[in-house]
Amino acid sequence: MTGPEQDVTDMQIKMLALDLDGTLTDSEKKVTPRTAQDLALAAEKGVRIVLASGRPTAGVQPLARELGLDKNGGCILSYNGGKIIDCASGLTLVQHAFPPELIGPVCQFAREAGTVALTYDANGIVTEQPADPYVEIEARTNRIPVRKVEDLTAAVDFPINKILVVGDPDRMPHVEELMQQKFAGQLSIYRSQPFFIEVMPLGIEKAASLELLLRTQGLFAKNLMACGDGWNDLPMIRFAGLGVAMGNAVPQVKAAADYVTADNDHDGVGLAIEKFILQEETNP
Description:
This protein is of the alpha/beta class. It has eleven helices and 14 strands. The radius of gyration is 18 Å and the shape is globular.
């Protein structure tokens, strides 16, 4: 395989998909000034910026506004691909609803596995266990409130895009495996963090929704550069014409990537933008 440095001109990168936590944002959940400037320069060159996260839409919107995506044609891909909105118009471009008949079985499985299930309404998180430490992490990360309900299955009488199952990181690989077996052929299930398992409509992940978005723009995988660090980023790293792993990425993402940049605390995304989109020599 030829190196991405040689292929980047032919790729004609027109879209940049960025995971947030551990990728675009640093350890303090902020975008560094250098990376923010590089994003603005990429947008000026006509590259469409897509914030591609497992977070709910409400948890991504403040950052999208901070980066000016409502002014430069950017998009939010939330719920790991369950929904894509255009930041300027607010229009929903892609949406996949969670099967209502599977909400109860997933919630029951989570209880029996000693984990906690949560989902999202228009205002924030909905769960039976608001004091769970991993629920609190999700709330803090997204800066959204938590609403306690007695029975999550009964409370969800509105369309949702995903269920998040949270729990002890040591147990989650086994829980993930059991869930994948139980819901095989019905749901897509994968970890995004050591303590988070994303439960999605079947076949829905970041790459599948990015492919739909590219089609609406008359673009192809070769026009996409994607940056990520976690297990749920693997599909888009493999799909993109140029897959970039962060220096802090899990080994599987680094192995799948075309290029490994610096970590999220040292302008990894900005350096990759400079190298492959702005095509400047960088010195990490």
